[in-house]
Amino acid sequence: MVKEEPGKYPYTRGIYENMYKDRLWTMRQYAGFTTAKESNERFKFLIKNGVKGLSVAFDLPTQIGYDSDHIMAEGEVGKVGVPISCLNNMENLFKGIPLDKVSTSMTINATAPILLALHIALAEKNGIKIKDLQGTIQNDILKEYVARGTYIYPPRPSLRLVTDVFEFCSSHLPNWNTISVSGYHIREAGSTASQELGFTFANAITYVQSAIDKGLDPNIFCQRISFFLNSHNGFLEEISKFRAARQVWANIMKNRFGVTAKKAHMFRFHTQTGGSTLTAAEVDNNVVRTTLQALSAVLGGTQSLHTNSKDEALSLPSIDAAKLALRTQQVLAYESGISNHPDPFGGSYLIEDMTRNYVEETMSIIDEIDNLGGSISAIESGYMENQISASAYEYQKDIENNSKIILGLNKFKNENELDPILHEIDPLKVEEQISSLKKIKRSRNNIQVEQQLLKLKKIAKSKINVMPSIIKCVKNECTLGEISDTLRSVFGEY
Predict the structure, then answer these.
(1) Burial of 84 (0-12, 13-18, 19+ CB in 10 A)
(2) In sequence order, what DSSP letters do the residues of 185-228 get, joined into one string?
(3) Given 57, 60, 409, 463, which is the most exposed site by the fewest CB atoms within 10 A?
(4) Where do the domains of the chain lie, and which CATH numbers do they carry?
(5) What is the per-residue pLDDT across 429-456, written as a single tens digit (0 to 9) for each?
(6) Which SS3 state, helix, strand or coil, does residue 280 take?
(7) Which residues does 395 contact at the CB level (< 8 Å), separation at least 6?
């Protein structure tokens, strides 16, 4: 048996020879609050405390294409993230933050082209060349149909928007990750670790094939594909899962698509610790859970990491909890010594056996989805969603019959626990967001807005890339909701 080494195909032991000895993983903290101004303050706090990359959480209306003043947004503005309806909101979000110096990750899917357009418009307004922008747009719409639900349009036109982003970025944003194919939300919805990998890679295969069918070169655009995985409590299992993922992706790139570019073979991934593993009871236990999960991610070779705050099962993170979550990563990075050793568990009989099993199980799931006609067919038939639901049901049964122990939930329950101090949403700030948006809509050039939206509608009906038109729309003060509605009129809703 040939001994595998870090930095060499199929990258089981890591995509770089020295891994963190040369460069630590990017420490990100996911944040987004009731207003862009409030979110900007949290971003600056995190940067001051050592964060190297920002990760933006958007509120639900923004995720599904509604402005803050829309009737469908009522009661949801700023609840689970920052509301972004227009370029002015984007300006306030990144005020005083150099977009060409700080890497930005945006967890957005159905409205990903619009948020990317806003990011580009803001950079250009600030005199920044868009080729210098670094970051990631999640842009993974397929998993929304089976795991999260923040889709707008049917799968096939949604896939067109994804590949339009690929095409545009490959020409204009060479340092931008055009997609972060997400297994995280699949796992949060209740899948097993093998399903997390299998469904994620099946979706990635669909994206790659769609881009190839559009005429794009996989040796180029596949270099900018990144992934987003979950880290749960199974310490050794998660390390093995991450190792297996690198091997599977390298083989898919080389053997399925014939890709020769070395960088395209590399499975680059962001990890977030498992939100669904956090408990509302005894929130301090979540610090231990998160530490364990973060350690798995680092030992598994992640390129980027977000550590959940202890109070996230109850509310948006408080500032003290967010700081502690960041310090958890920093202790691992600067005090533990583990960054000096690439893939330190490599060679362990148990780890290698688990890695092989994950590779085999993942490939078996991919083959099954291929036999169904690919990811879109597996989504439309309900196959993926049913598989995830069945796994979630088994997991919940194990908790309820006490065969799976969750401290504070089904064992060692503390009946006299004090309530933690939580982050609260200020209703006055919600009103401020809505009234500000209404004022912008009244004072802008609405004839110009209508003209740009009509042009976008015409382009959406054609096969022309929509990104340049969306960028023109946001520069002319069209809102996210108006652009989404224009695309709804062409593509319909799912």
Answers:
(1) buried
(2) HHHHTT--HHHHHHHHHHHHHHHHHHHHHTT--HHHHGGGEEEE
(3) 463
(4) 19-400 (3.20.20.240)
(5) 999 999 999 999 999 999 999 999 999 9
(6) coil
(7) 190, 404
Q: How far apart are CA 393 and CA 367, in angstroms?
A: 24
Inform me whether the pLDDT recorded for 100 exceeds 60: yes
Task: In whole angstroms, give the CA distance from residue 32 to residue 77.
Answer: 11
Taking CA atoms, 136 is separated from 106, 112, 228, 322, 409, in Å, by 6, 10, 11, 22, 36
Between the CA of residue 176 and those of 78, 113, 224, 260, 437, what are the distances in Å? 27, 13, 7, 21, 29
**By percentage, how much of the chain surpasses pLDDT 90?**
87
Q: What is Dmax (Cα atoms) for the chain? A: 70
pLDDT score at 407: 86
pLDDT (0 to 100) of residue 33 = 84
Specify the DSSP class assigned to residue 444: S
Neighbours of 24 (CB within 10 A): 18
Length of the chain: 494
Band the pLDDT of 275: cuts 50, 70, 90. Answer: very high
Contacts of 226 (CB under 8 A, 6+ apart): 136, 177, 179, 180, 181, 268, 269, 270, 303
Q: Which residues contact 456 (CB under 8 A, 6 or more apart)?
A: 466, 469, 470, 473, 483, 486, 487
